[in-house]
Amino acid sequence: MRNHLRRCKGISNKMVSKKQKSDSSGTMVSSPSLARPKIDQKALRIAIVKMFIAMELSFRCIEHEAFCEFLSIVAPSLDVISCTTLAHDIYKLWDTEREKLKEFISQNCQRVCLSSNTWTSSQNLSYMCLTAHFIDNSWKLQKKVLNFCQVTSHTRKTMAKKVELNRVLTLTVDNASSNDVGIQYLKKRLMSWNSLVMKGDYIHMRCCAHVLNLIVKEGFKDNIDAILRIRGAVKYVRSSPSRMSKFKTCVEQQNIEYKGLVCLDVETRWNST
């Protein structure tokens, strides 16, 4: 057996490799294959940016002590960025996704139907959202947000300036009279690009939801007292936890199976109340 071990180089090499994995004290050294894999810092940084966007986290969280400690354990080699750098990375990601969206639309559709809405936030700031609707080459309905930005006014001329596509079929907006000016401005702009269908006679589409909202409001005028009383009752119930608890008790006593609670309507939303 000893002579065989001396002659067999394969077994001898295996024994040598085992000895190399163990140190002088007899403990085993970790194999190189079990070492921590190399982290792609660029991919991880993009993932962090997407996480902050999806979770709507404050930019200051990137410099928080707990988050820095987490990164030091997960990715010790990653350079911790500041909140200012994070903001720049978000703008870079937005530019990248914007170019991807332009390429996707140019390759997957012929005409785009736009819809736009403008509203004022609780901070008294005006925002506008511009959405594109189209059918792709696979006959699937697609909906993509083209622009979501802060605007200085609710005039549709401001909205028309945000339209950068030249293959617009229709534009759906609410029934406000201020939209007529914006539509005319958009028609002139698209006409200069020679991209209008039927000279833009049917480019202006009025939002059916807003029209329905106006009809319902007009019908409610005869029963405005009843509506005000209902709103007052809802406000009274929701004004304190004790009143809400008593309301739930009354619901149980009446054996009402509906699980929802009373809620206040939003006058600017057609599908509220």
Task: Describe the structure in your own words.
Keywords: Metal-binding, Nucleus, Zinc, Zinc-finger. This is AC9 transposase. It comes from Cajanus cajan (Pigeon pea). Its main location: nucleus. The chain has 273 residues and is α/β, with parallel strands linked by helices. The protein folds into 3 domains: 39-107; 109-206; 219-273, no CATH class. The protein has helices at residues 2-7, 9-21, 41-54, 65-74, 83-108, 156-161, 179-192, 208-220, 224-238, 241-253, and strands at 112-120, 126-135, 141-151, 168-173, 204-206. Strands 3-2-1-4-5 form a 5-stranded mixed sheet. Helix 3 (41-54) crosses helix 5. It is extended, with a radius of gyration of 32 Å. It starts with a helix and ends in a 20-residue tail after the last helix. Mean pLDDT is 79; it is low at 21-33.
Question: What structural keywords apply?
Answer:
single chain; 273 residues; alpha/beta; 3 domains; metal-binding; nucleus; ZnF_BED_domain_contain; AC9 transposase; zinc ion binding
Q: Note the gap between the termini.
A: 91 Å
Judging from the principal axes of the Cα atoms, what is the shape? extended
Mean pLDDT: 79
* Largest sheet report: 5 strands, mixed
Structural class: alpha/beta
Percent range of helical residues: 40-55%
The rounded Rg comes to: 32 Å
Unreliable sequence segments? 21-33
Protein name: AC9 transposase
InterPro entries: RNaseH-like_sf (IPR012337), ZnF_BED_domain_contain (IPR052035)
Main location: nucleus
GO molecular function: zinc ion binding
